[in-house]
Records
---
Amino acid sequence: MLFPLAFAACDHDRNSAQASDQNQAAKIAEAAPISFPPDAGPLPTFDGNRAMQYVKEIVAFGPRPIGSANHKKVEEYIASHLKGDAVEDDMFTADTPEGKFPVHNIIAKFPGAKDGIVVIASHYDTNYPLRNTSFVGANDGGSSSALLLEIANQLRGKPRDGYSVWLVWDDAEESVKPDTELPFLDDSLYGIRHLAEKWQADGTLKKVKAFLLADMIGDADLNIDRDLNSTPWLEDTVFEAATRMGYQSHFFGRKNQVTDDHLPFMQKGVPSADLIDFDYGYNNVFWHTPQDTADKLSPKSLEITGVVILETIRILDKMEPLPPK
Ligand SMILES: [Zn+2]
């Protein structure tokens, strides 16, 4: 995961971020409340223990920066869990400040009867500048990639009345230079930028009704931020889902403004929401450090995020029409 603008280093930036935060908050306050379809049918389920096991297996490969042998092993690990599913590989070479790297987005498609697609995404690479350390990204990249594997288990073999759900394990989200060295959008999000452009060119993007991003959602002390770079009505829908599942106390206690994989889709007009808890340890002290290990996470946090994402999709399936972008 990348820097949130609101955490910028100097006072000037911080003040600007606060001003923009207030403007955005005012806009949210002005937006007409949306009405949600009535709750009906069985609530979603999610196996948090199984997802936690996946996290442990992913981090056991060690650091997995782009171009590494461990990265290749994790690509194969993800693919091995999707045998029999409709999987598309989006592979290309990224030109980065550290040279050319192979990048591999993995997309698993679960078809629905309704016209349109909901995308759920997570990056799986680890921070490149930390490649020679013991940084394994248990929360950052590991938790959300495991979450998507368990969501695949929940979707597999069940006919869907609603939208198609496409799970995207995207690659090369992390910068290859240290986080503060280059503008974030010039040196990061390589995989998802490529996918957004490809889908725009081939017409897929028009069918994407919502883009839900999960990042750093395994923290045992789970407090998912309300992200001001996300689509307000979609954030409201996530909160409605959290409320229906009884987990609203884990959502939106803080506001933040996050630069993350949802931005290329936001910029292309796709309603997007970043589910991220960017307060990992006191003052986010474990982020991008070798302390980002599986013992800081909990199966319950994975379950909370998992069922809230699945419930969000259930609400979206029944919202007619979806709010304007
Ligand atoms: Zn990161």
Note: Confidence is low (pLDDT under 50) at residues 5-19.
---
Amino acid sequence: MAAWRNWSRELTASPARYVRPSGTEGVAAAVRRAGRDGHRVRPVGSGHSFTPLVTDAEVMVDLAACDQLLDVDLTHRRMRVGAGIRLAELSRLLAGHELAMANLGDIDRQTLAGATATGTHGTGAAFGNLSTQIRSLRLVDGRGEVHDLGPGDERLDAARVNLGALGIVTEVELDLVDAFTLRGHDRTEPLARVMDEFPRRVAEHRHFELYAFPYSDRALTRTNDVVDAPPRPPGPVSSWVTERLLTTYALEAISRVGRRAPGAIPRLNRVVAAAAGEHVRVDASHRVFASARDVRFTEMELCVPRDAAMPLLGEILALIERERLAVNFPIEVRTAAADEIWLSPAHRREAAYLAVHNFVGLPYQEYFAGVWELARRHHARPHWGKRHPATAAELRELYPRWEDFARARAELDPDGRFRNDHLDRVLGPVDAR
Ligand SMILES: Cc1cc2nc3c(=O)[nH]c(=O)nc-3n(C[C@H](O)[C@H](O)[C@H](O)COP(=O)(O)OP(=O)(O)OC[C@H]3O[C@@H](n4cnc5c(N)ncnc54)[C@H](O)[C@@H]3O)c2cc1C
């Protein structure tokens, strides 16, 4: 049996050595030993990526034991933690100090280092991805040397989204905000109206996202706004309807039916979209942001200039209908603020992200290939942790600081200790000039 597999169970790895050091020294020792043995090394988080970022190396370094709270600075709202901490545990620690992350993605099972390495993001026009909340970090390079990268060191903007290609991050210091309560409001609405009003909704709400159901004229919208109220954690029944409908039981049911009878998908989607109903909750921010995702799917997500979001959504829905594609998973649309991180998909771009999914077991190849062809006309940058066919030759044209990242990579990993086949494809070879 393979030593490792990813969340969607589509990728496996059987490295010669799987290590779980408990601090920077242990990580550095593992890298130095790999150097002596001529082995390649991949750092691994919680395996929630869909791309083979961590496979085909002789040594896998799992940061699960680097998950401690190292320091809290309440005056400046900062916390330093072990980089392998899971986001759920991090949020729990922060809540204990009445602090929070300003924004989060839609699950909290990933590790901090793994999530930030691929530019994991939530939604909200005023908020960058999770990596923008990193103030400083500690990194073990390809020769086992330790670097502290902080404000003023421009390599920090290389390391905040790093694909595990620069080294192994062992500690992260975060910029935080005071704990806050969100009012989350989910409801279904006519898709055409939501598409028309998209810019206004994005501007009006702290966090806005939509899910468009293929073959249906309905969309599910989700808004999260700050309220001055104490959190009201949900009882076992109240959160059930939309949450479970969108994430688990109904999707699992339709995915099963859809796998057996793809022809039934358009009708199933219309039923689910119409039944989703309305749901309000008022709770601590991290509990409102994160959902359960129990049904296995595979995914591609593309970051485009925000103005291109609704045109691209329309083109994707038309593609699905024209080709009668068996897609029973809604298309998710989110936003993010522009940032300065060299390989962030939102680099210098007020961004929108469109995510397409299909359940594991349903064909996705034709769908994702078609969406990619449409999206690249809008200068799409793919999410680094999700499926995409782009290669370094194409990606370098999309990132103005590409060469700077390549230089930082060559400096920090001159021997290609952290390279693997996938990184060769998406970043190119390490060029230690
Ligand atoms: C159900 C589900 C929901 C998701 N929701 C979202 C979402 O809302 N928004 C979003 O943007 N993405 C989302 N994703 C994608 C996910 O956040 C990313 O793929 C993320 O990178 C996974 O983190 P991980 O801890 O599992 O890391 P892994 O997938 O294990 O690794 C990811 C990358 O991080 C590197 N890495 C890990 N640890 C270190 C380290 N210590 N130092 C340096 N590099 C390291 C690895 O080498 C690899 O390149 C979702 C994925 C799933 C499966």
Note: The first helix runs from residue 24 to 37.
